[in-house]
Amino acid sequence: HKPACHEDKYTSGIHKFVQMFSVNPFLMAMLRLAVVSECRLLDNPRVGFDVPFMACIKFSFEPSNFLDFIGLYLDDRAVEEKLQGMLQVNAITAWDPSTIPPHMLYFWRVARARCNAEGLANDPVGLVEFVCRSRAEDPVTFDLHIPTFTVNVVRTNEPLESVCTIMGTRIEKPICVKSCLE
Question: Which of 4, 83, 94, 162 makes the best surface tag, with the fewest CB within 10 Å?
Fold first, then answer.
């Protein structure tokens, strides 16, 4: 770092990793698809407009190198103390709207009003809370705008397509939280 540079809670810890995650268009597209499914946006057209939704994103940090991962699992003392790691999303679960705390409801109302003012009144808006399983830090919550296009992709029920890098075969999976996490 430069002498004048200092880290604060938004440039270090889980805030930094959540920020890095949130600027990745592919990861955010998968997160939005998973949230539409998990928060049941297709079941109630008011969700994201008049009714808030909130998803809890549970994640951990895992070694980037598979051999280091196995070494940690086997308690191998040869594994370095500091490892290169990556953020791994482990689960996405919907909050019951009736249990969303008042301060989060206010945060959602502000986000909903901002999106309305930006011409996004036809798109659902909710909140996502990132909770780190492996570190005792406060969760990071931010608003999540979901384009109508994303909701329509889930509505069509077309499968997600990917290619197995080892075999080169095309794989189709249903749009659900599990598929989006993979």
Answer: 4
Dihedral sign for Cα atoms in the order 33, 157, 90, 73: negative
Q: 158: which residues sit within 8 A by CB, 6+ positions away?
A: 175
Asked if residue 125 lies in contact with residue 146, where contact means CB atoms within 8 angstroms, the answer is yes
Phi, psi of 133 (to 5 degrees): -75, -25
**Alpha-carbon torsion angle 167, 172, 177, 178, nearest 10:** -40
Give the C-alpha separation, 168 to 159, whole Å.
18
Please count the CA atoms within 13 angstroms of the CA of 92 that sit on its side-chain side: 25
pLDDT digits (tens, 9 = 90+) for 113-133: 999 999 999 999 999 998 887
| Amino acid symbol at 151 | V
pLDDT at 71: 66
User: Which parts of the chain have pLDDT scores under 50?
Assistant: 1-9
pLDDT of residue 176: 80
Pairing of β 85-94 and β 125-132: unpaired
- Tell whether pTM > 0.85: no
